[in-house]
């Protein structure tokens, strides 16, 4: 297989993917987004590429390059539509909900007053999140009305794209951890617990520690169902464990990082992904 | 290794021969640098700040 790796920052994951691909005999074109240009009057370069893995750190670059490459008939993983579904939390949450996947109770409002009203309905504490964003940035918990009002004001003064759309969620009383499970192709082979004793946010970017996860059947089925709805080929799915309701789907990541998953599970995510991709390309 | 020039302090930075564009290098002056391809030659520039839409 001739593989393109579209990226804007060479993290551990991208380097590992390129190395593993070469190791199993794939030819690799690293496609550094900042060096890429597209011109309608010119033909696509790298005509021989069988597949492109989308690894841009910036969501807008990821979506734009996936769109461009798809429109030039390249096979791109993940494709732009799946990426948009992952990135926009309104779409992720309500799409999953409409297909019967358990999610935290979530309210969307378009004015400050209605946001406050919905928060009372959910019951404090509530969590306010930007519609788009990652690594736990700007995600905040409000214990009461006063705090939520301030957080809403802060959001309105940012330059977030959706700063006047309020995404407010019940605070799930999960243990001091959440689950990150990976879907690769049609399998869910590996995952981690992300444990944080000190902070209710369990992003590893915020100091949570990764622990190996034993994937039970319920979790695997749930992850594969999510993949069926969201689409894509390689997803990182965040799951909360609610003491009463069981598994709830928090977020879905379309360009997941997996360095810690590889480390604690001794599982070769890049290799698995590349093998799955080679299978698909042959079909 | 190739020796490149830090665009911030002018000091020398050792970068792996097979470094790829987009690779991040920390320099002792405190600068975070990004390898890029300057008309066929590896070079360094100040790394991009973490963007609003960055992350997995
Ligand atoms: Zn320097």
Automatic annotation (TrEMBL), chain A:
Keywords: Amino-acid biosynthesis, ATP-binding, Ligase, Magnesium, Metal-binding, Nucleotide-binding. Coiled coil: none annotated. Residues 93-278 form the ATP-grasp domain. GO terms for molecular function: ATP binding; coenzyme F420-2 alpha-glutamyl ligase activity; metal ion binding. Pfam families: LysX_preATP_grasp, RimK. The keyword Metal-binding applies. Belongs to the RimK family. LysX subfamily. This is Lysine biosynthesis protein LysX. It comes from Metallosphaera tengchongensis. The gene is lysX.
From TrEMBL, chain B:
It comes from Metallosphaera tengchongensis. It holds the Pfam family Zn_ribbon_LysW. It comes from the Archaea. InterPro entries: LysW (IPR005906). This is Sulfonate ABC transporter.
């Amino acid at each position: 297989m001739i593989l393109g790796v579209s990226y804007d920052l060479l993290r551990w994951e991208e380097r590992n993917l390129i190395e593993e691909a070469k190791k199993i005999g794939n030819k690799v074109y690293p496609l550094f987004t900042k060096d890429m240009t597209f011109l309608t009057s010119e033909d696509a370069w790298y005509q021989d590429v069988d597949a492109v893995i989308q690894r841009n750190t910036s969501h807008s670059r990821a979506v734009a390059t996936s769109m461009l490459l798809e429109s030039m008939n390249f096979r791109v993983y993940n494709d732009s539509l799946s990426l948009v579904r992952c990135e926009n939390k309104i779409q992720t949450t309500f799409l999953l909900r409409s297909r019967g996947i358990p999610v935290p109770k979530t309210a969307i409002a378009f004015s400050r007053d209605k946001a406050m009203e919905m928060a009372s309905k959910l019951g404090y504490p509530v969590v306010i999140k930007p519609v788009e964003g990652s690594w736990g940035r700007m995600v905040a918990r409000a214990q009461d009305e006063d705090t939520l009002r301030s957080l809403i004001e802060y959001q309105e003064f940012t330059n977030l794209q959706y700063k006047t759309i309020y995404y407010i969620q019940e605070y799930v009383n999960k243990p001091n951890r959440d689950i990150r499970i990976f879907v690769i192709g049609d399998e869910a082979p590996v995952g981690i617990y992300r444990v944080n004793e000190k902070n209710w946010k369990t992003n590893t970017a915020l100091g949570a520690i990764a622990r190996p996860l034993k994937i039970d059947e319920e979790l695997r089925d749930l992850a594969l169902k999510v993949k069926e709805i969201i689409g894509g080929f390689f997803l990182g799915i965040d799951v909360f464990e609610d003491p009463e309701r069981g598994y709830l789907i928090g977020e879905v990541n379309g360009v997941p990082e997996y360095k810690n998953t590889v480390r604690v599970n001794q599982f070769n995510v890049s290799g698995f992904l590349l093998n799955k991709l080679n299978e698909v390309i042959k079909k | 290794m190739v020796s490149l020039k830090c665009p911030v302090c002018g000091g020398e930075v050792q970068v792996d021969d097979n470094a790829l564009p987009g690779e991040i290098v920390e320099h002792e002056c405190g600068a975070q640098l990004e390898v890029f391809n300057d008309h066929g030659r590896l070079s360094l520039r100040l790394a991009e700040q973490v963007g609003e839409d960055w992350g997995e």
